[in-house]
Amino acid sequence: MRRRRAALRRVLSLLLAWALVSTCLLPSLALAADVTRGRDDQLRAAVARAATESYAQNAQAYLAAALDGLEELPEGDRGRGNWADHLPSLRAALETAFYDPARITEQETLEEMAQTAQAISAAWTSGNLTDPAALTALTDLLLALRQAAEAALTDARSLMGARDGEVPDEPPDGLDVPPSQWQAARNAVRQAEHAFDQALRQLEKGNAMSGAQHLVNAWRKATEALETLGHPLDPGEVTADRDGDGVADILELDAPLTGEVAELFTEDGTATAIMQLGGREVPIRLVWSKYTP
Known about the structure:
Blueprint: H1 2-52, H2 59-71, H3 75-78, H4 87-96, E1 98-100, E2 103-104, H5 107-126, H6 133-159, H7 179-204, H8 208-228, E3 250-253, E4 270-277, E5 280-288
Parallel strand pairs: 3-5
Antiparallel strand pairs: 1-2, 4-5
């Protein structure tokens, strides 16, 4: 009987101890889980904005803003995680890696931007980064990457005379390249388009690591197409965006087609002209919206 009573007391003591632990510990664990979920949601939202937000400035300005934000983080955040190791070289790249404010000419710079975005994401997930300003910087960094990739792709597609989302089977007038080079460039542009679409999908899901790497791949393949066609990393020779504002120099005209102007247009309703913009002569492609052959 005494043994039974002793055993019963031990069982009751264990139950009491578990009740105390449950009362004190489980709410804390639940709160920690809520905090983690909240931080994850913040990260996903910051990354997703980079896929959907309209450009408010050029890639160079986005990169500068990201670096400013990261360099102003509290010392405690700056000392945790390897993302800070990339800042000096990216700061130098602002002066050396840009052809114009919308275009980056060095693959190493894009790769380092992607690595920095990945490191910020990892540091936030692990708790080594806690200041929300880091997420604003991450969005700016990804927007710089997205615009650089999109500008390279726009240049390649414009040079190749893309219409309605399709690159033609043969080179446009004035672009004299062998069929093998043209096909290689077309394949590179298709791969760039696929990589860019993949990047946007991954960013929309909140995946900074995969999204950033796809953007680098999109830039690389678009640049490969330009190089194949004899325009290596030189958007100045391409009619896409000479003023560097991130918007292609393509104008759609909505007016009657009369007089000598009509003679400038080819059978598909397009023409190339020179426009004075900011004191420079800018080649632009004109599309006549009401053109009928």
